[in-house]
Design goal:
- By secondary structure, the protein is of the alpha+beta class.
- About 25% of the residues lie in helices and about 30% in strands.
Amino acid sequence: MNSIHLVPVEGRVPYAACLEWQRDLARAKIAGGLPEDLVLLLEHEPVLTLGRGARESNVVAPREILEVAGVQTVEVERGGDVTYHGPGQLVGYPILDLNRWKRDLHWYLRQLEQTLIDALRGLGLQGFRFPDYTGVWVGDANDRSATGRAAGRVRKIASIGVHVSRWVTWHGFALNVTNEPLLNFGLIVPCGIDEVRMTTLESEGVSHGWETVRNAVGFGLGNAFECSVHVTPSVRVGEHPILDAATALVG
């Protein structure tokens, strides 16, 4: 059975430092120097990231407003449009070798969605997919339409954007936990989706501690990827995960 190691990262992490760390880990995995598959789990300092498909017009706030709010803007190699990361959001960066799993990007995106759907179920909330938009949504599952989206009857709670090189992955997903991110989502057109309503676990009446949410994501990974999951001790950004001290969470 394949396995994944969850790596909790301490503190609120500057985006640039974490991006370089992901790239270092991915390069090590491509070169054969990192045999284990990892998922980094963390919170970021406020940042807007623009994927390969991003349109500048989807950053609606003027540069001056971003500077006052302390929100950086970074162009990255992941797919997708613009999104926000910041406090109150659990971000996961899988560093996986898809040669071990399935060499199919669409399959991988669906497994990440299923991971988050299963995690939400474990936290007491029904999540689902929305046609033509990668990510996870909540609300009225019977009204997955543009009208339902504009009216807020379906709301986006998790975003996904990935990059793959030689079938090794980085970038990943973001799950909105507390209400802190909601104000800064107003700086952009989230994921380039018109009239999208972003939401959080807190807004949906679900309240859990960070460890509970992290573990729910771990159980979701185990279910979606049909693998064992281990949790390492927490590390600081840039440090090598302490894999030999990991404890079993699934399997």
